[in-house]
Specification:
Elements (H helix, E strand, L loop, with lengths): L1 H25 L3 H18 L6 E3 L5 H32 L3 H4 L4 H18 L1 H4 L11 H10 L6 H16 L9 H19 L8 H4 L1 E4 L2 E4 L22 H33 L5 H14 L9 E3 H9 L6 H21 L4 H15 L2 H10 L2 H17 L1 H23 L1 E4 L1 H5 L9 E7 L4 H12 L7 E8 L5 H16 L3 E5 L3 H10 L8 E4 L2 H8 L1
Parallel strand pairs: 6-7, 7-8, 8-9
Antiparallel strand pairs: 1-4, 2-3, 5-6
Helix pairs in contact: 1-2, 1-3, 1-13, 1-14, 1-15, 2-12, 2-14, 3-11, 3-12, 5-15, 5-16, 5-17, 8-9, 8-15, 11-12, 11-13, 11-18, 17-18, 20-21
């Protein structure tokens, strides 16, 4: 129990500033990130499968949530999060967790590296203290805005960012168990507070100076020092606004959030299982993440998923049960209640430096470069496509295209497992007198829409002097509707050309599919036999 309490406190210290930084990065007040960490950390751990995963706001979501906030505001984001929760729930109930795990590695690396580039680029504004009033548009537009705004950079903000970054990088080398974020942010926040207090006309930007809150009759600057407040996610909309048109606009964002959340959560589970030897049930994990995202919006939280970095810290700090995640959430809740005024003085440049480190850690630069160097060219094309679309266009497009490319890759490589081969010579040693008008083919691998046309073309092209074709399906593992239709075309073609088709080695499952489809065997032109050798004995 002591180890789990210590691990929960350690993760809580890391998650506290990070949750605020991630909320700010997508364009909402920092407390919304804190509310997310509190609710998701408890609900996902209780109802999910993993014992040691820590859930909350993550860097992976930043790119996909920014355009939602810019177009629909906080209420639109909460609604998207709510709908994505139901989608995740359905994915878990329909046992799609195992399918999500099949996403090719180049796709996930392309996503994560692209996300890291975008996150790092967007932190330049606060890291350099640039004066930008409207930081909107696509990636290239924001880059242009950053470049054109560089003359407005503030040396004091830059120094704060550099010092924070310097400590974040060097402190882990001391091997201390105290998190680098706690040391760096504590030192820099104290220094910035003293500087602002003595220089009222040259203030360094902090959470207090950047954000205001209005909750009921209570208003102020910084982070509201009050516990969680129940809220209605759609409260920002009038009754007239809530209609099918709005649903159609939000559902596409919700699907993208759900898919990315599922990928991130299950990738986190794979990593944590590898470190601990546990076995996470992917479908139960999706149900836990779905319930977390359903609960979170009712407390003002943004979409959440399992966080890889925080989960790894939890494991290394001794976390072995769900207690550590609950402790981490309680720590953040108590910090809001008792430390909100202090937390409000965190410098914006320091939070940007924290996210720069997060972006670097998630960028997988080494893996990205290694794929380009050693991977097959198709994997490289997929990697670069996902990366470029994530950076330059839109995360939704990247998710859609990435999933499509993953499917195409899967189909292509499954087709490569399929083969149809003329094997007369292989049988000639045992059966010396195989008639010349007999052709024997072995079909290996699954027969589905990707392979059916190959079989159809091969058999349709048999020479006119071939009167009997034997198909050995002993190594065919499955057959789909397209392949059945192709078989019917072959049968009809053979019937017109007065040829006989003999099928052998069919297992009971495929035999029943033939029967249900209406293919009838055991007549003069269409024969099914269990053993190919008995057929060849009869033909000799």
């Amino acid at each position: 129990m002591k180890n789990n309490i210590f691990a929960g406190l350690t993760v809580g210290i890391i998650a506290l500033p990070l949750s605020m930084a991630l909320a700010i990065a997508i364009g909402v007040p920092p407390q919304n990130g804190l509310y997310t960490a509190i609710i998701a950390g408890i609900v996902a751990s209780i109802f999910g499968s993993s014992k040691i995963n820590i859930s909350g706001p993550t860097a992976a979501f930043v790119v996909i949530l920014i355009p939602i906030v810019q177009e629909f505001g906080l209420s639109g984001l909460l609604l998207c999060g709510l709908m994505s929760g139901f989608i995740l729930l359905l994915m878990g109930f329909f046992k799609l967790g195992n399918l999500i795990e099949l996403i090719p590695y180049p796709v996930t690396v392309g996503f994560t590296t692209g996300i890291a580039v975008v996150i790092a680029t967007f932190q330049i504004k606060d890291f350099f203290g640039l004066n930008i009033e409207h930081f909107t548009g696509h990636f290239h537009q924001k880059v242009y805005t950053l470049i054109s705004s560089f003359p407005t950079f503030k040396l004091t903000e830059l120094l704060v960012g550099i010092v924070t970054l310097f400590i974040l990088i060097l402190w882990p080398k001391t091997k201390s168990k105290i998190p680098a974020a706690l040391i760096s942010l504590t030192i820099v926040t104290i220094a910035v507070y003293l500087y602002n207090d003595s220089n009222p006309n040259m203030q360094i930007s902090t959470i207090y100076s950047t954000f205001e809150y209005h909750i009921g009759n209570i208003q102020g600057n910084g982070i509201p020092p009050i516990p969680l407040q129940f809220t209605i996610p759609w409260s920002g909309y009038s009754i007239d606004d809530i209609n099918l048109d709005m649903f159609y606009k939000l559902i596409q964002h919700s699907v993208a959030i759900a898919i990315l959340g599922a990928l991130e959560s299950l990738l986190c589970a794979v990593i944590s299982d590898g470190m601990t030897g546990n076995r996470t049930n992917p479908n139960k994990e999706l149900i836990g993440q779905g319930l977390a995202n359903i609960f979170v919006p009712f407390f003002g939280g943004i979409p959440a998923t399992a966080a890889i970095a925080r989960s790894v810290v939890n494991i290394k700090s001794g976390g072995t049960s769900k207690v550590s995640s609950v402790i981490h959430s309680i720590f953040i809740l108590l910090s809001i209640i008792f430390l909100a005024p202090i937390l409000s003085y965190l410098p914006m440049a320091s939070l940007s430096a924290l996210l720069l480190v997060v972006a670097w850690n998630m960028s997988e630069v080494k893996h990205f470069a290694n794929i380009i160097k050693v991977a097959p060219k198709h994997d490289v094309y997929v990697l670069l496509t996902c990366f470029i679309l994530t950076v330059l266009l839109d995360m939704q497009i990247a998710v859609g295209v990435g999933m499509g490319l993953a499917s195409i890759l899967f189909i292509k490589r499954t087709i490569e497992l399929y083969s149809i081969n003329l094997v007369n010579n292989e049988h000639s040693s045992r059966h010396l007198n195989i008639p010349e008008h007999v052709a024997i083919y072995d079909i290996n691998g699954p027969m589905f829409f990707g392979a059916a046309q190959s079989a159809l073309k091969t058999l349709m092209d048999t020479k006119d002097d071939i009167k009997t074709v034997i198909l050995n399906l002993e190594h065919v593992t499955m057959i789909d509707m397209t392949a059945l239709v192709a078989f019917k075309s072959i049968i009809d073609n053979f019937d017109r050309n007065n040829k006989t088709l003999i099928i052998t080695g069919v297992n009971n499952r495929i035999s029943k599919k033939f029967e249900r489809f209406g293919i009838k065997f055991n007549d003069d032109k269409l024969i099914m036999k269990k053993d190919i050798n008995s057929i060849l004995d009869e033909l000799e």
